[in-house]
């Protein structure tokens, strides 16, 4: 099985990212369950605003969308800004809105049968609110979420220590990431062998 991670850091890949670090830890935790994956740092790409599959010449979303549709699992990794998912993450979710109009021959969205999970980091409160926003958006556009489909770390509010600065992964974060990986891979395997019924 395969996974793609959309990292909603506001920074390009030339800079370290706590969101990407946690995202890669999710992929590492999925590996023992037979999942391989890739990471897409959204800030590296010109994802145009809009709610269409393709917003025209130069839009990077169609290629990213192809990776999402080719994968069995989608992981959305986002920092918390002002208690919410990042603007980069929200733009990707808006682009996924186009999937409401994309269906197979039996009326199912092309995202049906794909499983999603979320990773959140920040130096302020809002991990539950942030994951709830992303969960709802992903479910609206056809993704299925397993039990325990989020892992997160929240540091001291307005603190100077980021997740990427920690000397080791906190035990609770590691355990939560392991549960996310196990449950998400399990559900993806089930849906791969037993599809949703026609609409």
Automatic annotation (TrEMBL):
Return the protein name.
Answer: Flavodoxin
For the NADPH-dependent FMN reductase-like domain, which residue ranges apply?
1-148
| InterPro entries cross-referenced by the UniProt entry | Flavoprotein-like_sf, FMN_Rdtase-like_dom
Source superkingdom: Bacteria
Single GO MF annotation: oxidoreductase activity
């Amino acid at each position: 099985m395969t996974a793609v991670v959309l990292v909603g850091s506001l920074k390009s890949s030339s800079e370290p990212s706590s969101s990407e670090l946690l995202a890669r830890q999710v992929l590492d935790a999925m590996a023992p369950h037979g999942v391989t994956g890739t990471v897409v740092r959204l800030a590296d790409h010109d994802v145009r605003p809009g709610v269409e599959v393709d917003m025209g010449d130069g839009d990077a979303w169609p290629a990213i969308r192809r990776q999402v549709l080719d994968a069995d699992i989608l992981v959305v990794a986002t920092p918390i800004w002002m208690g919410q998912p990042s603007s980069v993450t929200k733009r990707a979710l808006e682009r996924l809105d186009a999937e409401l109009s994309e269906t197979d021959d039996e009326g199912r969205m092309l995202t049906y049968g794909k499983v999603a999970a979320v990773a959140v980091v920040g130096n302020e409160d809002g991990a539950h609110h942030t994951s709830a926003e992303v969960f709802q958006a992903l479910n609206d556009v056809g993704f299925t979420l397993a039990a325990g489909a989020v892992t997160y770390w929240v540091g001291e509010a307005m603190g100077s220590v980021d997740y990427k600065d920690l000397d080791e992964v906190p035990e609770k974060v590691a355990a939560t990431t392991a549960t996310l990986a196990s449950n998400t891979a399990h559900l993806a395997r089930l849906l791969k062998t037993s599809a949703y019924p026609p609409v």
